[in-house]
Amino acid sequence: MLVSIYEEKRGLREMRVLENLKNMIHETNEHTLPKCRETMQDNLNQVLQKLQAATDSVCKLQQREQERKKMYNDHLIASENQHTIQWEEFMKEQHNKQAEVDEEHRKAVERLKEQYAEMEKDLAKFSTF
Description:
Elements (H helix, E strand, L loop, with lengths): L1 H126 L2
Pfam families: Muted
Family: Belongs to the BLOC1S5 family.
InterPro entries: Bloc1s5 (IPR017243)
């Protein structure tokens, strides 16, 4: 009989434990899981919005960077073209100056030849004495 009472109490304890588990499962299924699902959905939406905002910002930054690089490259090309034009003008000017110097040198050599020829004539006059 003692065993039977013990078994009965044990059975009642197990029934209470099972009833408590059933209530916990019901509470979880009916209240906790829907709240968790709703919270996760809200958080997921917020994360997706922030991700979209970050993506938009990155796209704008990339576009600005590309525009800045294009402006820099355009400026660099324009500057290079300007330097090429200046170099060509400088070289043309140097060529003209060289031609002037060559002409002055040719004239100076011609004058010296004439002067020496004149001096030789004068010298020839004096040597006949």
